[in-house]
Specification:
globular
Length: about 280
């Protein structure tokens, strides 16, 4: 790499759609992919989407501004660094991350040894699971404060736009292919286990695992029908009190094919956590 090229990277922080880490930050930042803005049809659109549920309708046009999306889901190693800085705090009556869930099919691979949080060897690059919505948003806030960059959860509309390939979309049923097993760890091929990030073919934008492996929290409050979706693509906030569930998207390693479709929507209470839900970062442009 030439000196001029390196200087360009340090000054402008991105090249060919990928944000480079902040040279002044002491935190290892995630690899982010530029998602160029555009207008798309969100939800269940006849002729493109099938086997739809009522909450996926009616489809609607949504305009998205440029933003960045994490190439991968947030990993155990990344989240462990956060826990060692902030601790596993309690919010709304629940800890951010349930470190051990006995007798479950899959467990969180982060544990506490003495005063430090550690990742089980071999699981550093697996996505963090058993993290609730508060734990996901707390991680975003910590990384934003540490780096000086506007890290956050994606809105639901941004999530679906990026999963569909943005303005490079091939109109696939899953993120990057009509062949689910080509792009996703799913019910048919996962062995009923979470896998390391980036093990499957990326989508049109180079983003991995937006179908399968683990579902991903979004910033939005839950709304039952898509006519409530903000047409500007920002997160939907039901009220200042936010006494409703939060959206998650994407399907997980044990999810049925119908729930892996890109228009499929789901939600849970923000204090809830499970073996099939993690998150990925967005970054305002």
């Amino acid at each position: 790499m030439t000196y001029i090229t390196l200087l360009f990277f340090m000054l402008y922080g991105s090249v060919q759609g990928t944000v480079l880490p902040n040279q002044m930050s002491t935190v290892a930042e995630p690899e982010m992919v530029l998602v160029s803005g555009g207008t798309y049809i969100m939800g269940c659109y006849p002729g493109r989407d099938t086997l739809c549920y009522g909450e996926e309708k009616p489809s609607c046009y949504v305009s998205i501004s440029d933003f960045y999306m994490g190439r991968y889901e947030v990993t155990n190693a990344e989240y462990c660094r956060f826990l060692n800085e902030k601790g596993n705090q309690t919010e709304a009556g629940e800890v951010w991350t349930k470190l051990m869930v006995p007798n479950d099919e899959e467990i969180c691979r982060v544990s506490k040894k003495g005063e430090r949080f550690v990742v089980e060897k071999g699981y550093e690059n697996h996505p963090i699971i058993f993290v609730n919505w508060y734990g996901a948003t707390a991680y975003c806030a910590w990384l934003a404060e540490t780096t000086g960059k506007a890290y956050r959860l994606p809105s639901e509309a941004e999530w679906e736009y990026a999963a569909r390939g943005g303005n490079k979309s091939g109109n696939f049923r899953y993120s990057g292919s009509n062949n689910m097993e080509e792009v996703a760890w799913c019910e048919a091929n996962s062995g009923n286990r979470v896998h390391a990030v980036g093990g499957k073919k990326p989508n049109e934008l180079g983003i991995c695992d937006m179908t399968g492996n683990v579902c991903e929290w979004c910033a939005d409050d839950w709304y039952s029908f898509l006519q409530h979706a903000p047409q500007h693509g920002k997160a939907y906030v039901e009220s200042p009190q936010r006494n409703v569930g939060r959206v998650y998207r994407g399907g997980a390693y044990a999810t049925s094919p119908r729930a892996m479709r890109l228009s499929h929507r789901a939600h849970a209470a923000p204090v809830n956590s499970s073996r099939g839900v993690g998150f990925r970062l967005a970054l305002s442009n």
